[in-house]
Amino acid sequence: LLTATGAFSYMWSTGNNGTPITPAPMVTTDYTVTGTDVHSCVNTATASVYVNVSPTVTVNDQTICRGDTATLIAGGATTYTWSTGSTSATITPHPSSTANYTVSGSNALCTASIISTVTVLVNNTHITTNGALGICIGDSIKLSTTTSYTNYTWNTGQHTPSIEVTQAGLYTVYTIDNNGCKGTDSIKVFADSPVALPMQDSTICNGSSVHLQVTQ
Predict the structure, then answer these.
(1) CA distances, 21 to each of 25, 50, 105, 211 (Å)
(2) Which of 27, 30, 64, 124 is the most buried (most CB within 10 A)?
(3) What is the rounded CA–CA span in Å between residue 118 and residue 101?
(4) pLDDT (tens digit, 9 = 90+) per residue, 188-203?
């Protein structure tokens, strides 16, 4: 805002009449105003508008696995303020899902902002079975992962997407997906014991037969 005083009318080098004017230069610029009084006497004055260049703030994006920590580094300014409240050039957030972080950088009078995105990858490993979780003697249960990765480790020592188990116990699979993110899931297999059903005792003669019936 430039204001001229001391005259009756004004003419600016911008072509504007009157006062004040509100120039918006992109670079430092001089503005001259010519003032005329009621007696037609003329005088001039010059004012300078100094333009400070806004900083070109830079920051990196990052992709991490869930549970890991990102490192975001801002540059291009003198001081920084993050949306997290930090005033350091570097922050180390550990979001549980994809999140955006805004950093404002200043150099003397001017400030500029930029957004950084931390993409969080999740390895959702889950074990499924081909039936009930109870296992009878002599039977087996197939345990399969729901992922299609290439790196598997079961607590049984096997490295396949699926395993056949014949004993009760806790079974855990650890996976690494194509992005290097780790996942794990566990499932407990129970033993179903055969039920001994009682029958009535019977006494027969040699050569005779008897009908045996289970009692409830």
Answers:
(1) 12, 16, 30, 117
(2) 64
(3) 8
(4) 999 876 655 555 666 6
CA dist 102 to 57, 150, 166, Å?
A: 11, 37, 54
Q: What is the Cα–Cα distance from 11 to 34, expressed in whole angstroms?
A: 5
Distances (CA, A) of 120 to 160, 194, 211: 26, 48, 70
Which tokens sit at 183?
A: 């996942």
Give the per-residue pLDDT at 216: 53
Do the strands 127-129 and 99-107 form a parallel or antiparallel pair, or are they unpaired? unpaired
What does the DSSP 8-state code read for residue 96? S
Q: What angle do CA 64, 66, 67 make, to 5 degrees?
A: 105
- The dihedral sign for the CA sequence 92, 97, 98, 104: negative
- Give percent of the chain above pLDDT 90: 74
